[in-house]
Amino acid sequence: MKEKSLTEIWHGPEMESFRREHLAGLQSQCSRSQKDHACHLHHGHLEQYAKFDTSLQYPPIRLDFMVDSFCNLKCVMCTNVLEDNGGYDHDEFWDHCAQHIFPHVKELEIIGGEPFILDNTFRLIDLVTKHNPDCLWRVTTNAHYQFNERFKKAADKMKFESLAVSVDSLKQDTFSQIRAGARLDLVLKTLDDWVDYSQSRPADKPLKIVVNFVIQKDNAYELPSFIDFCLKKSVVPYPILLRDPDDYSIFDWPSDRLLDLFDYLLEHHKAEPHPSLALICHKIFKELPKATQVIRVEKLTRLLAKESQAQST
Ligand SMILES: C[S@@+](CC[C@H](N)C(=O)[O-])C[C@H]1O[C@@H](n2cnc3c(N)ncnc32)[C@H](O)[C@@H]1O
Ligand code: SF4
After folding, report:
1. Does 168 share its domain with 40?
2. DSSP E strand boundaries for 167-276
3. Does residue 71 have its Cβ closer than 6 Å to ligand 1?
């Protein structure tokens, strides 16, 4: 990024070979992520704008934009904190994007580090909304700051797909263990401020608030109460199964431990069904040893039969 413009990279040999590999179905660099996260299926809604070719005449239609990996927290499971800080601080990058990239982008996702503690995030929002007010934004934030007029002014200019707030536990102890250095009360207050703000927006510019919950060893049994919390707040729960680093992942547990969690979540799903609980149960099930799966299939079959019967009546 500091040696070439984004346009040069987009049309360069590395990108062409990357596209060629995908078009041939040889996505070796991505196959693990595609299996674990289905990331290749996340953006189907943009397919109408896309052409599938090795070289493309038009600029990118979607950007995942990490302004900087700098963060005000040091969550134990986050690998972003290992990256160099610094980000895009050279004016050529911004001038180039303002002229050639931002006017054409359909969707922009801000990732991090923590985006909302960076002046350059507000610079990005100003630039993109000025050149391209219809761009759809997705933002993920740790909400470890006080919501104020600056956020409101920036958000007022944006059309959102969603804003995700990361809350990995609602228990003070577990929260401060996972989100090291963070205060749960501040995060919950800022979440409430974002929710209040979302309700004040005009109907043609809705803001869907999502709450992320990265499932790991320390909080896995908290998932049902987290979903309950989200339903009460009318926000969308978004559980994410942590796989890397291994030490924090539930898939590092022996199979009897994993089975215990599976049974626990399934019991909750039976009592109060929720699609994200079903999805997590399904993903955990796929990781159980085959012999255990066979026994549990009977249990699942009974549950499914009961649910489909309930739906048809
Ligand atoms: C890297 S953070 C960046 C945005 C912001 N700092 C935050 O925490 O929301 C984006 C999301 O990734 C999650 N995350 C962190 N470490 C992860 C890991 N090892 N695996 C999966 N998700 C992770 C965070 O909890 C957060 O929901
Ligand atoms: S707040 Fe986000 S970026 Fe910062 S350490 Fe935690 S997960 Fe990583």
Report:
1. no
2. 209-215, 236-241
3. yes
Task: Scan for tokens 């911004």, then name that residue.
Answer: 94
128-136 — which CB contacts under 8 Å span 24+ positions? 128/102, 129/157, 129/158, 131/98, 131/102, 131/103, 132/102, 132/103, 132/104, 132/105, 133/157, 133/159, 134/159, 135/102, 135/105, 135/106, 135/107, 135/108, 135/159, 136/106, 136/107, 136/108, 136/160, 136/161
- The atom of ligand 2 lying closest to the CA of 78 is 8
Strand segments (E) across the chain: 62-66, 107-111, 136-141, 159-166, 209-215, 236-241
Sequence-distant (≥ 6) Cβ neighbours of residue 261 within 8 angstroms: 220, 221, 250, 253, 284
Give which of 130, 124, 95 is closest to 109, Cα–Cα: 124
Closest residue CA from atom 24 of ligand 1? 166
Residue 70 has pLDDT above 80, yes or no: yes
Instruction: Give yes or no for a contact between 207 and 197, defined as CB atoms under 8 angstroms apart.
Output: yes
- pLDDT tens-digit map of 5-63: 889 999 999 999 999 988 888 767 788 888 888 888 889 999 999 889 999 989 999 99
Could you list the residue range(s) of the whole structural domain that residue 150 is in?
A: 59-252
Q: Same structural domain for residues 138 and 201?
A: yes
CATH of the domain at 209: 3.20.20.70
Distance from residue 76's CA to the centre of ligand 1 (Å) = 10
Instruction: Tell me, yes or no, whether 248 and 258 share the same domain.
Output: no
Q: Is the beta carbon of 244 within 6 A of some atom in ligand 1? A: yes
User: Is the CB–ligand 2 distance for residue 74 below 6 Å?
Assistant: yes
pLDDT per residue as tens digits for the range 152-209: 999 999 999 999 999 999 999 999 999 998 999 999 999 999 999 999 999 999 999 9
